[in-house]
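Task: sequence design from structure.
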């Protein structure tokens, strides 16, 4: 039997949302290509975020380069500490992230109702720091390899997730640079540039969307954990002492962003970190209920002045705000909101996906696959159907289609029964279908059908654009 994730994967490929990268060469693990509909959906997710985050007074945008000075990653701690614990099974040779192996095991115990044991293991996991701590949990609990079912494990080792490359023709240590594993550091090192070139003063933020790369030990669950992905991050610089109120503010803003784009509160949960990074004063993840269980889609972090102070130390350049009137000076504290564009793309796709029984034109019930995207996210906003290819109907449909195309991505579909055309559009999540029939010639009215309610209404053809604007 296929899982909901399998159905989603097959729909994604069939309708051109997501393809495996380098598929004709057997694929490249952890990388995916966005097809014609996927690229629209991804752009819409990014656009919705960009508007929510930067179309306001206190946030500026930025687009920093992917390759940056290697010292940045020393200052940020990534060279020393951006590691994951890794373990191999001796029988299957399968490699796992030791912490996620334990987390998956905990989720299994919870599903079986063994909550006490799950809690005990969870608190050991939260306290684990050394490779041997992860190893002892796996050995003590006899956690089996999901591939072979055996418990014959190697030791645990730490593995740095940054991809390395070289600048210039000589490949040696002095030319090593890294593909950025997060967009945040590009923001921190431009803090002074933005402060000095705009009229901002704390509290203010800098937002950026861009690619990030992590050499993940295990890539799995489709777009959830990939080696190349996009992040949408914002660092909000505040006066020390006000970080708690801004942390609460940003958590609420970000939670509501998902809700306003059509996610129900029942598929979201807030997960405060039990184990905080040494520099953090608070951290809460927003998790989404994926078909495989709960998974983080966004982190809201209170990072103190850790990053700016470190860049000040490593670069020797002051990273302070000085108030020109009061002469007060301080290194701002930072609240960070960090969300994966690709991971939230997957969450929006899962959230929208439904398979249901509906009444077909012939009166029999049939299965319909539908993507109930919020209209702002839907890759195609409307489809125009001339009922037949004669009687002058295409001549009415064509100018309407061309006019709508000036504003939105729309499709024209002239083939098959109207029922079939509805199903095709439902499957790609088009919120509105507009049918031109013989009656249109008489009364200039068209039928607009709503994807979710499947209700139809007649409106004048001259008001279609207005109608769509109001509903998108
Ligand atoms: P995880 O624990 O799942 O590895 P993380 O805590 O390391 O994630 P952050 O560094 O806080 O994640 O990254 C912020 C966001 O970037 C995550 O919430 C997620 O949406 C996205 N992200 C991180 N790693 C990946 C990845 N390998 N593939 C896709 N998206 C990712």
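Answer:
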């Amino acid at each position: 039997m296929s899982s909901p994730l399998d159905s989603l994967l097959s729909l994604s490929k069939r309708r051109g949302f997501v393809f495996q990268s380098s598929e004709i060469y057997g694929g490249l693990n952890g990388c995916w290509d966005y097809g014609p509909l996927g690229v629209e959906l991804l752009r819409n997710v990014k656009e919705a975020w960009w508007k929510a985050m930067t179309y306001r007074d206190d946030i500026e945008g930025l687009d920093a380069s992917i390759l940056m000075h290697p010292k940045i990653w020393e200052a940020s701690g990534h060279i020393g500490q951006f590691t994951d614990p890794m373990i191999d099974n001796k029988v299957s040779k399968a490699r796992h992230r030791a912490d996620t192996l334990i987390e998956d095991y905990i989720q299994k115990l919870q599903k079986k109702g063994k909550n006490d044991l799950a809690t005990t293991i969870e608190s050991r996991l939260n306290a684990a720091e050394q490779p041997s701590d992860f190893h002892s949990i796996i050995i003590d609990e006899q956690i089996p390899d999901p591939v072979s079912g055996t418990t014959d494990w190697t030791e645990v080792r730490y593995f740095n997730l940054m991809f390395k490359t070289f600048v210039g023709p000589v490949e040696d240590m002095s030319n090593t640079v890294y593909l950025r594993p997060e967009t945040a550091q590009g923001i921190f090192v431009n803090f002074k540039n933005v402060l000095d070139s705009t009229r901002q003063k704390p509290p203010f933020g800098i937002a950026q969307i861009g690619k990030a790369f992590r050499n993940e030990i295990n890539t799995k669950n489709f777009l959830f954990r990939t080696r190349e992905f996009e992040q949408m991050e914002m660092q909000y610089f505040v006066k020390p002492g006000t970080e708690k109120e801004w942390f609460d503010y940003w958590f609420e803003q970000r939670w509501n962003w998902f809700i306003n784009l059509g996610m129900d509160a029942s598929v979201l949960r807030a997960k405060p970190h039990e184990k905080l990074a040494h520099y953090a004063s608070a951290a809460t993840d927003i998790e989404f209920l994926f078909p495989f269980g709960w998974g983080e889609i966004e982190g809201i972090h209170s990072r103190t002045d850790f990053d700016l102070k470190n860049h000040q130390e490593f670069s020797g350049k002051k990273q302070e705000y000085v108030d020109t009137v009061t002469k007060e000076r301080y290194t701002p504290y930072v609240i960070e909101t960090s969300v994966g564009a690709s991971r939230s793309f997957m969450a929006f796709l899962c959230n929208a996906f439904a398979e249901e029984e509906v009444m077909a034109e012939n009166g029999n019930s049939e299965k319909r696959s539908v993507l109930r995207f919020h209209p702002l996210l839907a890759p195609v906003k409307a489809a125009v159907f001339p009922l037949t290819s004669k009687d002058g109907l295409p001549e009415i449909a064509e100018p309407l289609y061309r006019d709508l195309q000036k504003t939105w991505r729309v499709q024209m579909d002239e083939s098959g029964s109207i029922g079939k055309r509805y199903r095709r559009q439902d499957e790609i999540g088009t919120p509105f279908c507009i049918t031109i029939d013989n009656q249109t010639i008489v009364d200039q009215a068209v039928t607009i059908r709503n994807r979710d309610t499947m209700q139809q209404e007649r409106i004048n053809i001259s008001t279609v654009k207005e109608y769509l604007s109001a509903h998108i």
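The chain has a mean pLDDT of 94.
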